[in-house]
Specification:
264 residues, globular
């Protein structure tokens, strides 16, 4: 258990939701909402667990059945051999979880690091995809992220000057059970090659969005150009991890895109 838990008392992280045995590990997940609505899968950004989506969950549940889960090695999910910490495996884990839950297809949306898993899901499990969403995305091997902090601070200042509310970030969004496993999960990009050339094979309706104040903006534009028919959107006054800067805009983009989803 993360040592910060005891300092803060009970948090949303301390509530264990559901476990499913998938590919030899237990995946922590929660499925909420009306099963008659389209299913939306939210894939966590780096170093976060499924509680981080609470900033957008309520409005998304008005339009979707929502599945959140902890990637292997993060949050309360289990983990396996280090060789299994890669985006293809994360995508396969999601496919296994969906089968376990009886979900035939879903709109899979990943933010930042989670967008790499979403892209792999689209390439490896296209028949289970009603739509793809990639926010704040880069898919090349490690790219320079050194200015993300300064750009994020600029976006925050712009939001404040505009009188817009900024959600308070919670420490428990980043809690995990095992430090080594969490680190292995979130260094997968160091072991993955450039997947850009494969993007032309994606056939599902695709939304690519990125903050104006995000070092990945140029990469996101390039990715949108490579995916056939992709929709691209720039989120103003928004840094890396856009859902934490403009949750309202994230919800708007995701919910409006639901009219583009396909039945699989």
């Amino acid at each position: 258990m993360n040592p910060d838990t005891n300092k803060l008392g009970t948090t949303a992280y301390d509530v264990t939701r559901n476990m499913a045995r998938v590919h030899g590990i237990d995946l922590h997940h929660v499925l909420e909402g009306d099963a008659k609505k389209p299913t939306l899968v939210l894939v966590n950004m780096a170093s976060h667990n499924l509680t981080c989506w609470e900033v957008v969950l309520a409005p998304l549940l008005e339009h979707f059945q929502v599945l959140r889960f902890d990637l292997r090695g993060t949050g309360k999910s289990g983990w396996g051999d280090k060789a299994q910490f890669n985006f293809a495996q994360y995508a396969d884990d999601l496919a296994g979880l969906m089968r376990h839950l009886g979900i035939k297809s879903a709109f899979v949306v990943g933010v930042a690091y989670g967008a790499r898993t979403a892209a792999q899901f689209a390439l490896r499990h296209p028949t289970m995809l009603s739509g793809l969403g990639m926010f704040d995305v880069a898919l090349t091997p490690p790219v320079d992220q050194g200015d993300q902090g300064a750009l994020g601070a600029k976006a925050m200042a712009m939001l404040k000057d505009a009188g817009m509310a900024i959600p308070e970030r919670q420490k428990y969004w980043r809690f995990y059970e095992n430090r080594d496993a969490a680190l292995a999960c979130h260094t997968a990009h160091q072991r993955e090659g450039d997947t850009m050339a494969a993007l032309s094979a994606i056939t599902a309706p695709t939304l690519v969005a990125c903050g104006r104040q995000d070092m990945n903006l140029d990469s996101a534009k390039e990715i949108a150009a490579l995916v056939p028919g992709a929709t691209f959107a720039v989120m103003e006054m928004t840094g890396h991890g856009s859902v934490f800067y403009r949750p309202d805009e994230f919800v708007r983009l995701v919910t409006e895109f639901r009219t583009s989803l396909i039945d699989v």
